[in-house]
Amino acid sequence: MVFIGGIRESAHGTAFIEIGDGGRRESAHGTAFIEIGYGESEDPSGQFCGDSTKIKNTEIYKNIDSLLPKLVLGTSQYGFITTSYGKGESQVYGLAQCRGDVSSEDCSTCIQDAANEIRKRCPNQSDSRIWYEYCFLRYSIQNFFGQVDTGFGIYYYNVQNVTDPDPDTFNKELGALMDKISSDAIMPGNKGLGKAKTKLTPFNTLYGLVQCTRDLSKQGCAECLSIAIGNFPTFCNDKKGCRVLYSSCYLRYELYPFYFPLDSQESIVGAPMNYHSTIVYKP
Fold this sequence. Notes:
By secondary structure, the protein is an alpha+beta fold. The protein folds into two domains: about 35-140, Killer Toxin P4, Chain A, CATH 3.30.430.20; about 150-280, Gnk2 domain, C-X8-C-X2-C motif (Killer Toxin P4, Chain A, 2-Layer Sandwich), CATH 3.30.430.20. About 25% of the residues lie in helices and about 30% in strands. It has five helices and 14 strands. The chain has helices spanning about 60-80, 105-120, 165-185, 220-230, 230-235, and strands at about 5-10, 15-20, 30-40, 45-50, 80-85, 90-100, 130, 135-140, 150-160, 195-200, 205-210, 240-245, 250-255, 275-280. Helix 1 packs antiparallel against helix 2 and helix 3 (about 165-185) runs antiparallel to helix 4 (about 220-230). InterPro entries: CRR_secretory_protein, GNK2, GNK2_sf. This is Gnk2-homologous domain-containing protein. It holds the Pfam family Stress-antifung.
């Protein structure tokens, strides 16, 4: 995986990756945490370039280049696609998906950007993934279709803690909201999407959205969301906002509107500058 920083091994074989002056923490589950600063930009929300999957023959390069247009076309038309290109050891599997609430125009623009950018950021890896706010794209020489993948994830969290309502009340309401939209996401016809809002106080509304990749079964979607929400106390505890980016699911909550459609009195708010991220990686 491509990172900037030092890597050390613990006695338990866990990789600790340190970036800049970011902090490092170790969980009881033996995963690695990397904390980095985050600012709003047009860059992707995250990327994964598997160092252990360096491309060893030109046929894989050609197959990736042939696969990407298929992913862009299918996603632009249907919002989601799984497909492959090539044969034998050089066959490449790909998945691309837009968030279920975005327009077809935004979806098409996002997935084209993703296809262009992933080859720049991961030029020599056969296992590559890229996240944008509105879409996700990945490819690999391993068939990953239908498999729950939480081996690599990114948690973005607001550095500010909630004060109104009090943290206990907020976390209770957050848990109830996540339960509701997770249940909605696995319902037939919802295509892995769940979203809702709840009034916390006269002046504060909590907005939440979850999205599973559409290749997952009902059980697989529920598993991915459960893992992500289960990590809230570690990464998002008492925070005003948080986003989770896994290869199989996406979660987000905020105290401002961010999903579509908007109510007449609402407008999309750009992510504040006071966000940090933690990368969770199980080597």
